[in-house]
């Protein structure tokens, strides 16, 4: 008798649980379909928005009274970034290990009526960075913009200098940059205001012959920038921006006329002044990624999605190297 009652009870429970499981599965499937539809719709909207911004870019934000820290301001694109930021009303902190070059940049900015202060620092050592950050915060307070312009070689140095040691290259291009971000980004997060700018050379998109350490370092800088973007997104911090700039193919000075590119009519070369103006345009529009020249950003994205063989053929065609005429 008891066995029959137990069997009837189990039969009832199984009869009741079966439709319940079916309902739960149906509910889960509906939620999944809604999530997929939401992702697809938003992805399509993002594509349309990106296409729209090609023809009508976002407005330029003001950098007036922003405090911009430029690492590597003694020469090249770092110097031009400092000068142009100062002309836009920013308070520029110039940092370079070459005291003479750095002071020339500061003096030039002040002569033009801008606001600048210089610090001499070899950022390859962490204790130097810690001391620099302490001085800057004590004397100037909050740093709202960080530009790191170290670790990007000129085309001439790529051809005339031997490959660097992997530790030295990574320390200069990546590790020092990480330490700087670690010292200044927490304040940006706390205020929900700031901008980190990461510069990578062509080596961050494609291998350069006999320059494996450089390529590794530049790929790593790209990964660091993308990790920072995800960190900000996951923590729902929308007032701090990260801009990744691919300097492609090369930034050269006006007097370097002995360089020969495979397709000079399309790639060409650009001056440091023109490159800095292009970088600041992308930064002031809060773009997540840009390139110098701008038209080659699509190439960087294309190389990420094509099959390996196709990217190899494309790199052979474009030939990212340079020769002396």
TrEMBL record:
Entry keywords, A to Z: Membrane, Oxidoreductase, Transmembrane, Transmembrane helix
Keyword Ligase: no
Record-linked Pfam families: adh_short
InterPro entries the UniProt entry points to: NAD(P)-bd_dom_sf (IPR036291), SDR_fam (IPR002347)
A GO molecular function held by the record: oxidoreductase activity
Coiled-coil region list: none
Gene3D superfamilies: NAD(P)-binding Rossmann-like Domain (3.40.50.720)
Superkingdom of the source species: Eukaryota
Residue stretches spanning the membrane: 36-55
Family classification: Belongs to the short-chain dehydrogenases/reductases (SDR) family.
Full protein name: Uncharacterized protein
Organism per entry: Loxostege sticticalis (Beet webworm moth)
């Amino acid at each position: 008798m008891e066995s029959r009652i137990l069997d009837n009870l189990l039969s009832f429970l199984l009869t009741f649980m079966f439709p319940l499981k079916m309902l739960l599965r149906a509910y889960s499937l509906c939620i999944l379909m809604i999530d997929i539809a939401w992702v697809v719709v938003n992805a399509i909207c993002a594509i349309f928005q990106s296409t729209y911004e090609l023809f009508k870019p976002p407005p330029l934000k003001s950098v007036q009274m922003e405090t911009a820290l430029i690492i590597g301001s003694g020469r090249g694109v770092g110097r031009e970034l400092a000068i142009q930021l100062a002309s836009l009303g920013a308070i520029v902190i110039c940092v370079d290990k070459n005291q003479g070059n750095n002071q020339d940049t500061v003096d030039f900015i002040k002569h033009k009526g801008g606001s600048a202060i210089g610090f001499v620092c070899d950022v390859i050592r962490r204790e130097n960075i810690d001391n620099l950050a302490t001085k800057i915060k004590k004397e100037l307070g909050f740093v709202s913009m960080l530009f790191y312009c170290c670790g990007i070689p000129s085309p001439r140095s790529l051809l005339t200098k031997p490959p660097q040691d992997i530790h030295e290259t990574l320390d200069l291009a990546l590790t020092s940059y990480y330490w700087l971000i670690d010292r200044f980004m927490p304040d940006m997060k706390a205020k929900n205001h700031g901008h980190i700018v990461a510069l990578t050379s062509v080596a961050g998109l494609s291998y350069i012959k006999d320059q494996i350490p450089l390529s590794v370092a530049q790929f790593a800088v790209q990964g660091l920038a993308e990790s920072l973007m995800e960190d900000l997104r996951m923590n729902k911090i929308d007032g701090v921006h990260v801009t990744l700039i691919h300097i492609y193919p090369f930034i050269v000075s006006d007097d370097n006329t002995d360089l020969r590119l495979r397709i000079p009519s399309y790639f060409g070369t650009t001056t440091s002044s023109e490159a800095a103006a292009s970088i600041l345009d992308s930064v002031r529009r809060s773009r997540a990624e840009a390139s110098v020249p701008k038209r080659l950003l699509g190439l960087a994205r294309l190389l990420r999605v094509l099959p390996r063989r196709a990217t190899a053929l494309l790199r052979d065609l474009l030939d990212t190297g340079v020769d002396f005429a």
